[in-house]
């Protein structure tokens, strides 16, 4: 429930829509499932934690919700998850993928290849598998919604390189899936949320007192849910975007480019230009597609 005590999504606004939530029993998954159920969606509650899946299902049932399907499988079993959803509800309209495996907090040199593999398996291949299995159904019905989860930790989070790597992977495919889905009514977006839990306390010490206070009082998991539900709703026209959400607020992350220096034909010339190239501030161009970027780059390379 939001601070205004209004429901996050209007009752009945997701009626007859089937939404698969993978990583459903985590900090974000739980309030997402609760808000979807309250809005009348058929909710597919998927997570690897059997007890937590059962407990969440029971709590939603006791709140009067019946259109629920509980699945204890890894998100990497996308085809099975989607098949079960179709068998129960006859359609799949959206997938929300807040999956997150255990984070190995280690300096880069101490992380093993298996640490990276496990992070990829849970955080990247899981969301890909569910999305890919739902995709042909989305195409057939001319409608689909996908939300993946990236993170501001991509801006640099020492000892979390296995994690940040996976968040970059989801960011990297966001625009491409949005483009591939465009002709089929499929909207694909990423959310970069903040959902506080007391076990994050040591990580927030780096912030100002005001922001630490906000983490503890305002940045609760459900404060990200309105935008997440908006992105899987019929009304969503945005696609290929990254929304940062926290404390009942949302903004858009941008990928900016600064005009470069041309005529760099020697290492010495490059080293001399580094200061200018890496200078912060100034004009930033935001390309919306790869073509946009390459055309803009071509102009300064060609001195136009
Ligand atoms: N919490 C934050 O502040 C924050 C910040 C930035 C990004 N995010 C991102 O948001 C998403 C959700 O975060 P959270 O805080 O709710 O995480 P969480 O750890 O509370 O929940 C993640 C859930 O995913 C489940 N899971 C793990 N591997 C799975 C698999 N292979 N198949 C199915 N389920 C699996 C876990 O059992 C767990 O229930 C994550 O992708 C995370 O990277 C969270």
TrEMBL record:
<dbReference type="GO" id="GO:0016491">
    <property type="term" value="F:oxidoreductase activity"/>
</dbReference>
<dbReference type="Pfam" id="PF00106">
    <property type="entry name" value="adh_short"/>
</dbReference>
<keyword id="KW-0560">Oxidoreductase</keyword>
<protein>
    <submittedName>
        <fullName>NAD(P)-binding protein</fullName>
    </submittedName>
</protein>
<dbReference type="InterPro" id="IPR036291">
    <property type="entry name" value="NAD(P)-bd_dom_sf"/>
</dbReference>
<comment type="similarity">
    <text>Belongs to the short-chain dehydrogenases/reductases (SDR) family.</text>
</comment>
<dbReference type="InterPro" id="IPR051687">
    <property type="entry name" value="Peroxisomal_Beta-Oxidation"/>
</dbReference>
<dbReference type="InterPro" id="IPR002347">
    <property type="entry name" value="SDR_fam"/>
</dbReference>
């Amino acid at each position: 429930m939001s601070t205004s005590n209004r429901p996050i999504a209007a009752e009945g606004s997701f009626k007859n829509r089937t939404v698969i939530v993978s990583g459903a029993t985590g900090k974000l998954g739980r309030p997402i499932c609760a808000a979807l159920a309250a809005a009348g969606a058929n909710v597919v509650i998927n997570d690897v934690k059997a007890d937590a899946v059962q407990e969440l299902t029971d709590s939603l049932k006791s709140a009067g919700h019946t259109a629920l399907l509980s699945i204890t499988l890894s998100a990497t079993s996308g085809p099975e998850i989607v098949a079960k959803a179709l068998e129960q509800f006859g359609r799949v309209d959206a997938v929300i993928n807040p999956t997150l495996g255990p984070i190995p907090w280690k300096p880069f040199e101490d992380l093993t290849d298996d640490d990276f593999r496990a992070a990829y398996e849970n955080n990247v291949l899981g969301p890909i598998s569910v999305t890919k299995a739902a995709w042909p159904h989305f195409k057939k019905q001319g409608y689909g919604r996908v939300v993946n989860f990236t993170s501001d930790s991509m801006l640099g989070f020492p000892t979390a390189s296995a994690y940040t790597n996976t968040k970059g992977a989801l960011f990297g495919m966001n625009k491409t899936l949005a483009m591939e889905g465009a002709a089929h009514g499929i909207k694909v977006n990423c959310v970069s949320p903040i959902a506080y839990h007391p076990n994050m306390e040591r990580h927030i010490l780096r912030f100002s007192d005001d922001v630490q206070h906000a983490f503890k009082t305002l940045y609760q998991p459900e404060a990200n849910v309105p935008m997440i539900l908006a992105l899987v709703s019929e009304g969503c026209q945005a696609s290929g975007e990254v929304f940062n959400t926290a404390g009942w607020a949302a903004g858009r992350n941008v990928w900016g480019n600064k005009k470069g220096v041309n005529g760099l034909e020697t290492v010495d010339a490059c080293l001399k230009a580094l200061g200018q190239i890496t200078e912060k501030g100034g004009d930033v161009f935001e390309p919306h597609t790869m073509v946009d970027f390459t055309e803009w780059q071509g102009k300064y390379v060609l001195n136009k």
